[in-house]
Amino acid sequence: MAISACAAVAITLAAFVFNSKHQQVHAQSLPTVQPTSPIDNSYHTGLVTLSSQVDGALPDTYEMFWAVGNGEWNKMTTSVSTGVSMAVIDTSTWNWQQDNRYVIRYIALLKDGWRPIESSLVINKGTPPLQTSATVPPSQTTSTPELIPVSPKLTHDVLYVDSEGTVAKQLSRNPQNQSLQYMAKQSTAHWYGDWNTNVSSDVDNYISRATAANATPTIVMYNIPGRDCGNYSAGGATTYDKYIDWVRQVADGINGRNVTIIVEPDALAAMDCLSSSERHQRINAISQVVSIVKTVQSRVYIDAGHSDWQSTATMATRLKSAGIAKANGFSLNVSNFRTTSESITYGNSLSAKVGDKHFVVDTSRNGNGASTNNEWCNPAGRGLGEAPTLATGKSLVDAYLWIKTPGDSDGACGSGAPPAGQWWQSYADMLYINRKS
User: Fold this and answer.
1) Is residue 228 flagged as an active site residue?
2) Cα gap 108→34, rounded to integer Å
3) Exposed/middle/buried for 278, CB within 10 Å: 0-12, 13-18, 19+?
4) ∠ CA 145-151-152 to the nearest 5 degrees?
5) Angle at CA 134, nearest 5°, toward 132 and 139?
6) Catalytic residue among 162, 252, 408, 410
7) Does an H or E element contain 190, and which?
8) What Å distances lie between residue 213 and 159, 177, 243, 350, 401, CA to CA?
């Protein structure tokens, strides 16, 4: 449903003429329109999710529309249960504003007298200007922390459990399996990398499902050039220019919405395999990632390896150069097996060296701790750790998360082990049997 600009003006005038006295009486108690996405003054090149709410009115007492400037009104879909109105628009062909700035209006037409109330924001067509070159040493490119809003701790959120995730799909094929029944009830992160042919769309679809469920999703960005130093998870973007372009596509998919982001597992901890110039490129690129994806709705954690890898002094230096001041904090133990207590001890020490930043711990497979030989690739005898939760009871620990999907292989490194990232049911069953009680 669309309303032409002329009709919209007519509705507005009619509302003014026939309800002016009514409006004067109730002017102080009118509901207000609150846009919730996208972020004001954000940049977009394709699909954009618009969402808004009306404070002070029930969903069945108004109809919500969006418009570009003084253009036609287009009806939005409003959820009766949440009161959130949503629409998806395609900005790819927008070209009529010379400065590429477009005013998006959110208009609620109140059924009581058909009174319009509205709010607006601006979006920019295109990509944000590149702040720095990825080849410049990080000491010259670290952004001013005050420019990046740091969202609050995850205390009031609900972690999203995806009914279309890897474990849920396995359960649909094997509904009687107890390990799958248990795992499918847990919130597990979604990973994005060079295997996504349309990463913006893939991220958008996942976060849209979480938004509809009024829950917080967790995503992992895993596409850094030279990923995994050529080991089982080798790959990543072929150049840093392509990588930053990919990051912007991820940001387009997020579209300013509520999300927890884990930035590049192992990228800082494992960069001893790189030359000095390559380290500078990687550190600077991660700093740019934080600047691009950090919004008031996102919580960004730069990965810091695990407790038995780099010293806290070394990791603190790397985190500072990579923009930890702009992020919410750091992540620990991603895809590893160090116990939660080990990780917290290490994390507390590291936090003290980076401005008391908070952290999250991957507890997906640490129920039995690390193997005696410190094997990291599908070690035997491991178990599921604490279930994902925001109630850690630790002031610096924002969450225990299942960042690694339990049951996904670490690589073709053992008898019967499939390639990295592929499902391995027998390993999932072992993790469940040995789970932390």
Assistant:
1) yes
2) 10
3) middle
4) 125
5) 70
6) 410
7) strand 190-192
8) 10, 26, 31, 35, 19
pLDDT at position 2 is 61
pLDDT along the chain (437 residues), means of 10: 55 46 48 83 81 85 90 85 77 88 92 87 80 38 42 68 94 94 96 96 95 95 91 87 95 94 97 92 95 93 97 97 96 96 98 97 96 90 95 95 95 86 93 91
Residues 89 and 218 in one domain: no
What are the φ/ψ torsions at residue 279 (nearest 5 degrees)? -65, -45
Q: What is the pLDDT of residue 82?
A: 62
Q: Which of 162, 202, 204, 228 is catalytic?
A: 228
What is 144-171 written as a DSSP string? PGGGSPPPPPGGG--B---TTSHHHHHH
Instruction: Single out the residue of 196, 291, 199 nearest to residue 235, CA to CA.
Output: 196
Q: Do residue 120 and residue 153 come from a single domain? A: no
**99 and 166: one domain?**
no
Q: Could you tell me if residue 130 is inside a domain?
A: no
Domain boundary among 125, 148, 181: 125
Distances (CA, A) of 229 to 44, 137, 152, 233, 272: 33, 21, 34, 8, 9
Please give the DSSP secondary-structure letter assigned to residue 126.
S
Write down which residue in 99, 125, 151 finishes a domain: 125
Beta strands in 295-437 (DSSP E): 298-303, 329-332, 358-362, 397-401
Q: What is the pLDDT of residue 152?
A: 54
110 & 165 share domain: no
Q: What is the DSSP string of 274-328?
A: S-HHHHHHHHHHHHHHHHHH--SSEEEEEE---TTTS-HHHHHHHHHHTTGGGSS
pLDDT of residue 135: 37
Question: Has this prediction a pTM greater than 0.70?
Answer: no
- The C-alpha R_g of the chain, in whole angstroms, comes to 24
Using alpha carbons, select from 262, 93, 105, 286 the residue that is nearest to residue 189: 262
Q: Active site residue: 204, 252, 266, 398, which one?
A: 266
CA angle 271, 298, 125 (to 5 degrees): 95
Q: Which domain holds residue 98?
A: 2-125
3-state helix, strand, coil in the chain (%, to 5): 30, 25, 45
| In a shared domain, residues 189 and 303 | yes
CB 240 within 8 A of CB 262: no
